[in-house]
Design goal:
heterodimer; A: mainly alpha; two-stranded antiparallel sheet; 2 strands; B: 306 residues; Rossmann fold; Alpha-Beta Plaits; 2 domains; 6-stranded mixed beta sheet; 29% strand
Chain lengths: 259, 306
């Protein structure tokens, strides 16, 4: 292994250890809140209201919303982790510890993305375990389930990185989750099948990228989906590549980081 | 071999402020180099460019011959930075801060722990390794940043106001530590507002003002330019009338403290002979102000009044 490759590998491990340690240290902020809020969703939408709704996609309503709720928590957690961690480091100026090191932009990016993915998957697992208290959780196709959740966590970690790079104040890291991410997630088929919508709104929904992630994940778990699974993969991968390219460009040019 | 070569570096910020006007300078390997200048002179911009925190508008900085602009990763491996502002995670423990920093430079965890222990012990921070760093005193925080900058054992250590706000006892222990680092071969660049610090520690000096280097020479050569020196004499008994000595200026600070200003070429023997004749007994003597401070103010003032 060349000297620089060794530096990169140890540097990557260091960022990941730092990120995971942070996630575990503040578990009350990172893991518990999604578990509580998803429990409430299961109780209210699944148990209380869901019984009156009956079946959706051939499954009891509570079982139908499990993949969407897991995916929603993965999206919010992976995005939120990198935004708060990277922007916090920028705000506290300790991002300079990494910026003055020999680590190239790609390693910095990979380290933080891994942190975001770890938190997304950790929270996704916790929510899945919570779901087991309310309904049966089944996996129709392991490969699709794992690959979709992984790609989605990567995608939203990258999106969080873009937000963190541009953010100048704490308000800036709240705007995107509040005004873009949450509406798109709620309207992304988490709680319903878009087949229930009128034609116009079905077409509008088809422009929401989160719809494809939620449905691809639902296909992996239940074997039902409102969208073509191949289209879903293409959209997710294109987003990952585009956001990854943007992140690398921003980090390399030092936009928002170097003066 | 130069530890640092600055070649026609310019920086114009987006606001239009021209922070550096094509400055050039070199720092030899093993040197203890002072970079001085008033606030807003361009020191921090220059250090920022060397450490890749600031993008240069034009020109090049080379660290041990490696271009910061063309081969950033390789150049950065040789630099350790103690910045002016505190820039570590206040919620992190000192040990983790130092160990993580080592990791960013490719030092495996076990070795990083050994080095962190060594430097934290040398800087009297080992007992505090597990506290939240925000609970450290101001001096401890400064020392933590030195330990962090040293953990990857850089060949070039840049200290930007390392002793700002630190009491004299800790400042002296920091000087001792930094001097030892330099004696062991690390090139040190120091910016400070305590000019006494620069005079005592540094062998070479550059003074920067309004984005230009207005002086770049050996410390001794610069101090040799000082025409006058002022001494403070502590007297045994109160003095009522100030004696007059040709070619010197004597004045009382208080009744038992005499201030004597004389040209550098003048012998002090003449002064003491005259005081002896007047039956004035001197208990002790010291330099009035820091000599470098006088020169510095003179140079910067000259730059302001062309």
């Amino acid at each position: 292994m060349s000297v620089q490759a060794n530096v990169n590998w140890v540097g990557y491990q260091t960022i990941v250890i730092k990120e995971v340690t942070r996630i575990l240290r503040i578990w009350g902020q990172t893991v518990v809140p999604p578990a509580i809020s998803m429990s409430l969703y299961f109780v209210i939408f699944g148990n209380l209201i869901g019984k009156r709704i009956g079946e959706m996609g051939g499954y009891p309503y509570i079982q139908y919303i499990v993949p969407g709720l897991v995916m929603m928590s993965v999206i919010q957690s992976s995005y939120g982790n990198i935004v708060s961690s990277f922007f916090g480091a920028k705000f506290g100026k300790h991002i300079e510890e990494i910026l003055i090191s020999p680590l190239p932009s790609i390693i910095i990016l990979l380290g933080y993305i891994t942190g975001g993915v770890v938190r997304g998957l950790m929270v996704g697992t916790v929510v899945t375990v919570v779901a087991l208290f309310f309904t049966d959780v089944q996996i129709y196709n392991y490969w699709i389930t794992i690959s979709v959740v992984l790609l989605t966590a990567i995608m939203f970690s990258l999106a969080g990185m873009v937000n963190a790079i541009f953010a100048q104040k704490f308000d800036d890291i709240a705007i995107v989750p509040t005004f873009i991410l949450t509406p798109l997630t709620y309207l992304g088929g988490v709680f319903y099948s878009i087949s229930l919508l009128p034609d116009f709104w079905r077409k509008v929904s088809a422009m929401n990228p989160i719809l494809y992630m939620v449905n691809a994940f639902r296909y992996g778990m239940l074997g039902v989906s409102d969208v073509n699974i191949v289209h879903a993969y293409i959209i997710i991968i294109l987003f990952v590549l585009a956001l990854g390219g943007i992140c690398l460009f921003l980090l390399h040019r030092g936009i928002g980081l170097r003066t | 071999m130069y530890a640092l070569e600055i070649d026609k570096l310019s920086k114009t910020y987006a606001s239009g402020v021209q922070a550096l006007n094509g400055v050039s300078m070199q720092v030899k390997e093993g040197d203890f180099f002072a970079l001085l200048g008033p606030n807003g002179a361009g020191k921090s911009t220059l250090i920022g460019i060397i450490c890749s925190l600031v993008n240069a508008s034009s020109g090049e900085a080379r660290v041990f011959g490696i271009s910061v602009q063309k081969n950033r990763s390789a150049a950065m491996g040789h630099i350790g930075l103690v910045p002016q502002e505190l820039n570590f995670n206040q919620f992190e423990q000192p040990l983790n801060i130092v160990v993580n920093q080592a990791g960013y430079y490719g030092i495996p965890r076990r070795k990083a722990l050994q080095r962190a222990e060594r430097y934290l012990k040398q800087l009297d921070l080992w007992d505090k390794r597990h506290v939240f760093s925000r609970t450290l005193s101001g001096g401890m925080k400064r020392r933590l940043m030195i330990a962090r900058a040293m953990v990857h054992e850089p060949r070039l250590l840049i200290l930007d106001e390392p002793t700002a706000g630190v009491d004299i006892e800790i400042r002296r222990s920091m000087w001792k530590f930094i001097r030892e680092i330099n004696e062991n071969g690390t090139t040190v660049i120091l910016t400070t507002h305590y000019l006494e610090e620069a005079e005592q520690l540094c062998r070479n000096i550059a003074i920067i003002d309004k984005g230009d280097i207005i002086e770049n020479t050996a410390m001794k050569a610069l101090l040799a330019k000082l025409d006058y020196e002022t001494f403070i004499l502590d007297l045994r008994e109160p003095l009522a009338v100030v004696p007059e000595v040709e070619g010197m200026h004597l004045a009382l600070q208080d009744e038992i403290t005499l201030e004597a200003t004389l040209p550098r070429q003048k012998s002090l023997n003449k002064l003491f002979a005259h005081l002896d004749v007047c039956n004035i007994q001197v208990l002790s003597m010291r330099n009035k102000a820091n000599r470098l401070e006088e020169l510095f103010l003179g140079l910067v003032k000259k730059g302001n009044n062309p």
